[in-house]
Amino acid sequence: MRRWIGMAAFLLVLPVSLRASASDYTVRISGTAKGAEGREIVWRADADPFSMRYVELDRCRIDENGAFVLQTDLVADVLPTYLVIDYYATVFFARAGSDYRLRMAPFDYHADETRNAFVPSDQLPSLQYVLLDEDGRPDTVGLNALLGRYSRLYDRMVARNFEQIGIRKDSRPVTRFIQVADSVFGDVDDAYFKAYRIYTEAALEEFSGLSSRKELYERYLKDRPLAEENPAWVAFVKSYYTDYFQTNRFLPFAQVARILNRKDLTAGERLACLADSMGLDYSLKGERLRERVLIGACAEVRGDERVDEENLLEMLRFLAVNTKFPGHAKALENLLRAVREAEERRYFTEVELADSAGNEIPVGNLLEKDKFHYFVFVRADYERCPSCREEADLLEKIWNAASEDVRRAVKIVFVNCDYPFAAYYHDFMRRRYPWPYLHFNGNIDWVRTVDAARFPAFVLVDDTGRVLDASFNAPGNGLPDAFEKMGRLRIRKERSRSGSKD
Asked: Which of 222, 363, 442, 467 is deepest in the core (most CB within 10 A)?
């Protein structure tokens, strides 16, 4: 099923805004954030639609009175941005030349850290705030106010009718929503808001089957400019062309794989072959849109085992140098940088954990040459992680039954992620696992960076500390077979070194 992409879901807790007169394009936000004194507030925006990288607009330290000031001259028209404190964030639409006054709802960040430090980032609560007018009253007429009201209407409709629309493909709730939105917002003249509505509702039409793909193309894509600055347009296009290489009839995935895997083609020839085939698609007649979809499709298939990734990256590097669209060049530069950084990271050698005596143990000291390292992130608080005990008990049985080859190839390390050291220590003394069992030692960012905040989490690491798989097999999901494969790989490597034959 095509994923739900109505962009109003991006604005679950959107407050109100102020448009003030200004003589230049500088955007300024001054405000208060009670409870966040001494912390940094960061203002950022998406760098592009593909790389998951951010552009930092400004940052500052919140003073002892909870006050802060942010300023940027990087907004040309309207820009969807994020205000971030620690790992909490909220969306803020900034309009060029505006001066905003903002009051954040009081929030006890210190008390909340122990409660939500390990909540997956897509489930974290949003920061809430109010924008004030010149008289210090909540503004109710600006762009953010309109988007907030519209998104709340949208969210209620989605919550009530998701299964009906997405699974049963009943378009009646969508039709009713569009009618209600027309009655409430039909007189709004703000061009950005109107475009936001158009593409959010286009996505609803596609998701519900209210309009065919050809009808959607004719109404919302054909001969229209690319509205990259509007997240509703970005979300609609992403939905319309999701899994393009896997779903379109003009370029079957088997053909894509053949093109990308051929060693006799240059990067430019691979690109030309893909572009020529995509040009047969009626919905990709525009060169800029076709190239944009190509970049998105390549980002989606990167990592697919059926595709030669180095050939794919070589083609993207070629396109980054030769594209005539500056925005695409920048997006490709960001995407390729993200790939390099992901490859270069060594998450498991940059922190110190704590043993049961409170001694700090560098993670790099736990790694053994020529071994796979199976890191398991757990909680001793079994109410927060009901399956931690079950999976640990099963892992002990698997380990006790493992062959000597497996034991020589694999090292298990448990990392406890309860804030109170005493909770870890009590569990350590009670369980007495036959493998190292350490405390996370307050390294929240590290645990969240390796996406281990969904307990229990299972991460496979090589002997240099490089993450091989951030969501490896759980004990109850084929782990014995995976361990046996690791044992065989170790044997083959040793034989290869010694020159022995099978």
From this structure: 363
Q: Indicate the pTM of the whole model.
A: 0.75
Cβ neighbours, 10 Å, residue 99: 16
User: Are 358 and 421 a contacting pair, CB within 8 Å?
Assistant: yes
Q: How confident is the model at residue 20 (pLDDT cuts 50, 70, 90)?
A: very low
Q: Is the CA virtual torsion 245, 246, 252, 257 positive or negative?
A: positive
pLDDT at 115: 63
Residue 271 in 3-state DSSP? helix
Express each pLDDT in 302-330 by its tens digit.
Answer: 878 899 999 999 999 999 999 999 999 99
**How many CB atoms within 10 Å of residue 160?**
11
d(C-alpha 7, C-alpha 143), whole Å: 15
Print burial letters for 288-326: b (CB count within 10 Å at least 16), e (below 16): ebbbbbbbbbbbbbeebeebbeebbbbbbebbbeebebe
Cβ atoms < 10 Å from Cβ of 358? 10
pLDDT in tens, 171-230: 999 999 999 999 999 999 999 999 999 999 999 999 898 999 899 999 999 988 889 889
